[in-house]
Design a protein that fits this description.
The structure holds two protein chains of two kinds.
Chain A (H helix, E strand, L loop, with lengths): L4 H10 L8 E4 L3 E4 L3 H10 L11 E4 L9 H16 L4 E3 L6 H7 L8 E4 L13 E4 L2 H10 L2 E4 L3 E7 L8 H12 L8 E5 L8 H10 L7 E4 L3 H7 L20 E6 L6 E3 L7 E3 L10 E5 H4 L2 H11 L9 E5 L3 H9 L2 H7 L2 E3 L20 E4 L15 E4 L2 H10 L10
Parallel strand pairs in A: 2-3, 2-5, 3-4, 5-6, 8-9, 8-11, 9-10, 14-15, 14-17, 15-16, 17-18
Antiparallel strand pairs in A: 1-7, 12-13
Helix pairs in contact in A: 2-3, 2-5, 6-7, 10-12, 10-13
Chain B lengths: L1 E7 L6 H4 L11 H5 L10 H4 L5 E3 L12 H8 L4 E4 L4 H10 L2 E4 L1 H6 L5 E5 L4 E4 L2 E4 L5 H9 L2 H9 L2
Parallel strand pairs in B: 1-2, 2-3, 3-4
Antiparallel strand pairs in B: 1-5, 5-6, 6-7
């Protein structure tokens, strides 16, 4: 019996052949944390060790509440900066860089065959480049700082096979929303998700990140595309270390295989208050709303801003809505600036925010009042997440968010393509 | 054996409603966290929960963010266990790492109601309520060492000899 990519990566790290269901203890290649590093430092100090075990493996990226929205957040950031300096942590990224998952990928840490853990649930994102990447908690991260080890259960794998190609106005976000809607928020709980099939190659590097990112919303432990030409093209010139291309064997065992034809896919929307409450956009069309949010670790990359700008170019968003744009990183921001996308979006009436997580987690920069509705390109629509508990979040692609902002009501973007 | 009252909720209770994001980087003290436990799901919970109470839920309890406060706030509120049909994976790990008992038992999840009194026999793997007995899924052997040590911090200290 062959092995899946996950079994192979974890087996190589464990130094033996492993299969789904086994528990392995491994030393990860990198461990990510963000603003929650302040709390992790607190836990680390309880452990009674003076130094972190492997400072070069720690990646800290400040992104959740940047720049600090108040004194409390400022104090957290200060504690993190001081700790990073005192422990000589080389990979500390301060507030100017952007959302952790985008920055860690751009900086060349997310590579085929790597094991990356992060104290953020969307750590799954790095599977876009063929890494094993899983979210963990704060206490666990503190323990890894001290030991450079973690135990992991080797997950079973759910395969999702794509065929066909995207129609105009339909994107990776629509594909992942459709999959989550069809199969439920816990379909892949504790499992790996492999995105493959004859059409896997049509997904760009950026859209693979969208898919792997949102697999967390169906409970996945990790999610990935097998490395191919798209992957190698992305990592070229970026890779921070040597890496090994790992793919699943043809006779690997899967828990199940789901099949999706991209050609018949239409724009999708996750309606309040769960990510698996998904409907075609045309069934929600016409609903008035108050704020659009284009950005975040799910959809804040250049191709996302391009999709929005294409629809908004030379037009003005509707007077009844406000639109926020959050490029996922400084690199994306600069590219969008140089290509004139930020100018288009600003002229259309959007507010361009600094790269970061912004209002996605409900901490700052554009929260919702009671009764307000947002159309957001982010990954979660849980009650109260972006502000008042009586606000509503609809999740969609950047094109759907832009077309909706233009009309002041939820709109299928295909009429603008 | 320890006795408590049931607070019952549905499927897919997510970490945003267990502990809202607006507090995640502001509140560091467990006792303060407890005051906001389940705030966006059931505003009555934090005001009325008693030490030893038990949360009963459906499938996928704790889905969403990796925020550990969603386990810490319940433990600080005195919740002795969460019994659900299934748990989201990061939540399951976080709860164990913090010493909050997470028990998988579909029968208890279906049968028990808010206000029911329950006894939990952790060693015997049994949940007892009004003459009914429900057996729960034993935790994997690999995590028992962590729980026995009183959580991951104590477990790691032991390993490191600090």
């Amino acid at each position: 019996m062959g092995k899946t990519l996950t079994e192979k990566i974890l087996g190589r790290k464990a130094g033996r052949e492993v299969s789904a269901g086994e528990v392995v203890t491994v030393s990860p290649d990198y461990y990510l944390s963000h603003d929650n590093s302040a709390a992790i430092i607190g836990e680390f100090k309880k452990l009674g060790v003076a130094r972190v075990r492997a400072p070069e493996k720690i990646v800290i990226i400040l992104d959740h509440i940047v720049p600090a929205a108040d004194e409390k957040y400022a104090q957290n950031h200060k504690a993190i900066r001081e700790f990073a300096a005192a422990q000589a942590i080389p990979n500390f990224f301060d507030i100017q860089h952007g959302v952790c998952h985008q920055v860690l990928s751009e900086e060349g840490f997310a590579l085929p065959g790597k094991v990356i853990v992060g104290s953020d649930s969307h750590t799954t994102t790095y599977g876009a480049f063929g890494a094993f990447a899983a979210g963990i908690g704060r206490t666990e991260t503190a323990s890894i700082w001290a030991t450079d080890e973690i135990w992991l259960r080797v997950p079973e794998t759910l395969k999702v096979e794509f065929s066909g190609k995207f129609q105009a106005g339909v994107y990776a976000k629509d594909a992942i929303l459709k999959i989550i809607g069809d199969n439920g928020a816990d379909r892949a709980n504790y499992e790996a998700v492999e995105f493959s099939g004859p059409a896997a190659g049509v997904f760009s590097a950026a859209s693979r990140m969208t898919m792997a990112n949102m697999a967390a919303e169906m409970g996945a432990k990790n999610a990935y595309f097998e490395p191919d030409a798209v992957t190698l093209d992305w990592v070229k010139g970026r890779a921070k270390s040597e890496y090994e291309v790992v793919r699943s064997d043809a006779d690997a065992a899967y828990e199940a295989t789901l099949k999706y034809d991209l050609s018949s896919l239409e724009p999708q929307m996750a309606c309040p208050h769960t990510v698996d409450n998904v409907k075609p956009v045309r069934e929600v069309e016409g609903k008035p709303f108050h704020q659009a949010l284009i950005g975040t670790c799910t959809n804040g990359r250049l191709e996302d801003l391009e999709a929005a700008a294409k629809i908004l170019k030379g037009r003005r968003i509707h007077a009844s809505v406000r639109a926020l744009v959050l490029p996922a990183s400084r690199v994306v921001y600069l590219d969008a600036l140089r290509q004139g996308l930020l100018e288009i979006l600003s002229e259309a009436g959007c507010v361009i925010l600094n790269p970061g997580c912004g209002p996605c987690l409900g901490a700052h920069e554009g929260l919702l009042a009671a009764g307000e509705v947002v159309v957001s390109t982010s990954n979660r629509n849980f009650r109260g997440r972006m502000g008042n508990r009586d606000s509503e979040i609809y999740l969609a692609s950047p094109a759907t968010a832009a077309a909706s902002a233009l009309e002041g009501k939820i709109t299928d973007p295909r009429k603008y393509t | 054996m320890s006795k408590g009252c049931v607070w019952k909720y549905a499927d897919d209770v997510n970490t945003d409603v267990i502990f809202p994001g607006r507090y995640t980087y502001r509140i560091m003290e467990p006792a303060e966290m407890a005051k906001h436990a389940l705030e966006d799901l059931d505003p009555e919970f934090a005001k009325n929960v008693k030490p030893g109470d038990v949360i009963i839920a459906g499938k996928n309890f704790g889905c969403g963010s990796s925020r550990e406060q969603a386990a810490a706030c319940l433990r600080a509120a005195g919740v002795q266990a969460v019994i659900a049909k299934s748990f989201a994976r990061i939540y399951f790990r976080n709860a164990i790492n913090l010493g909050l008992a997470v028990l998988q038992c579909a029968e208890a999840s279906d049968a028990l109601r808010t206000g029911d009194e329950v006894d939990i026999d952790f060693a015997g793997g049994k949940i007892i309520s009004g003459g009914r007995v429900f057996k729960f899924f034993p935790l994997p052997a690999s995590v028992i060492g962590i729980i026995e040590a009183g959580g991951l911090i104590e477990y790691t200290k032991k390993r490191l000899g600090t």
